[in-house]
Design brief:
Blueprint: H1 11-21, E1 29-32, H2 40-52, E2 55-59, H3 74-89, E3 93-97, E4 100-104
Parallel strand pairs: 1-2
Antiparallel strand pairs: 2-4, 3-4
Helix pairs in contact: 1-2
Length: 107
């Protein structure tokens, strides 16, 4: 049955498995623009991209000047913290310019 019918819900988990063994994003600069958050499956893919790509630039649809906690932007701030924590834990260099994050694995 699986051979004849493909479930789109399996696409991200399948991609996640492929990215464990393949350095698909090596040599590329990847851009994420105006996201508020990622699902768990999407975030797993983003983590692979952060590890593999030469650089990743991400905007999270946040105002430039914002306190560390503003309930209106809680989702975006949580996403920002997850990405920053992941990059710190994996020694991925990051720069921030007016809340636009750039991570570089290759120089």
């Amino acid at each position: 049955l699986h051979e004849q019918y493909d479930d789109p819900a399996d696409d991200l988990p399948r991609l996640n498995e492929l990215l464990y063994d393949n350095n698909f994003f090596s040599g590329y600069n990847v851009y994420f623009d105006s996201f508020t958050d990622f699902t768990a499956a999407q975030l797993s893919i983003v983590y692979h991209i952060l590890r593999q790509a030469d650089s990743v630039t991400c905007t999270l649809n946040l105002p430039v000047h914002l306190s560390d906690y503003d309930s209106m932007y809680k989702t975006q701030l949580d996403t920002e913290r997850k990405l920053v924590r992941f990059s710190n834990e994996n020694n991925i260099a990051q720069t921030v310019d007016e809340r636009v994050y750039t991570w570089k694995t290759k120089y």
